[in-house]
Amino acid sequence: HHTLAVGQEFPDAQGFRDTLIATAIAMKFELTFIRSDRSRVTAMCAADGCPWRIHASKLLDVDTFQIKTLKGEHSCVRPERSSHRQANMKWILSCIMDRIRENINYKPKEIMRDLEQEYGIMIPYLKAHRAKERALELIFGMPIKDIVLNQTEVQGMETVVDDVLDQRRKKPLKGSPVHCNLCKKIGHNRRTCLKSRQSESEATSLKEKNFHCMLCKQSGHNRRTCQCKVEPVWMN
C-alpha cells in the first residue's frame, strides 16, 4: 500500500519517514527533505521543477504524526530501473531480513537481483554484501567477525562464512577478522604467517646452497663473503 493522503496518521515521526521513503521507492521518485525532526517533516520531489511536496507534523500531546498538506502531481520522468538515494541500509534490511531468516545462504547477488526485479532499484555488490552481513549480525546477535570465528557453533553457517571470507579477501571491510590467503586461517595475514616465514627461510637456505665461491671453490657462499685467505691465481 503506497497511497499517501491528507489526514493520514502514523505512530511517530520515524513511522512517517519510513512510509514516505517506501512510497518514494515504490513510485520511483527521490526525496529532498526540507526539514525533518521530531515535531515536523517536510519533503519534496528531488527532480528539478517537479511541484510534488508533502508536510506532516506531530499532533498535540501525542507522538502521532499526521499529513497536513500534500501538494502537486509529479511532472518528472522516472526511470524503470535506477539507483535511489533513499535506498539506504535500513530500507534494504527491511526487504531482506525475512528472506535471510528463512535461508541464511541468501547471497548478495540474489539480493541485487530481487531488489531490481521487485523495486527497480539497483545497488552495488558491496552494499548488498554489507546488508547481508548486517542482517546476520541482527539475527545471531553478534558481530560478523564473531560469527566467522564461531562458525562451528552455528549450524549451517559454513557456506555463509565461506561467502563472507571470499568477499573480505577481495576487499577487507572495517572490523573484519584478518584472513591469511596463504594458510587459509583466521587471525593473521600473509605477511605475518608462520608458513610464509618458513617458506622464505627455506628459499633463503636453498639460495645459499646454490652459491659457489670462485675463490675457494666451496659451496654455500660467494667470493665476497668467503672467509678463506687463499688468493686466486690471477691476483698473483
UniProtKB/TrEMBL annotation:
Transmembrane segments: none
Matching InterPro entries: Transposase_MuDR
Stored Gene3D superfamilies: Zinc finger, CCHC-type
Span of domain Transposase MuDR plant: 3-67
Pfam family of the protein (one): DBD_Tnp_Mut
Superkingdom of origin: Eukaryota
Protein name: Transposase MuDR plant domain-containing protein
Organism (species): Davidia involucrata
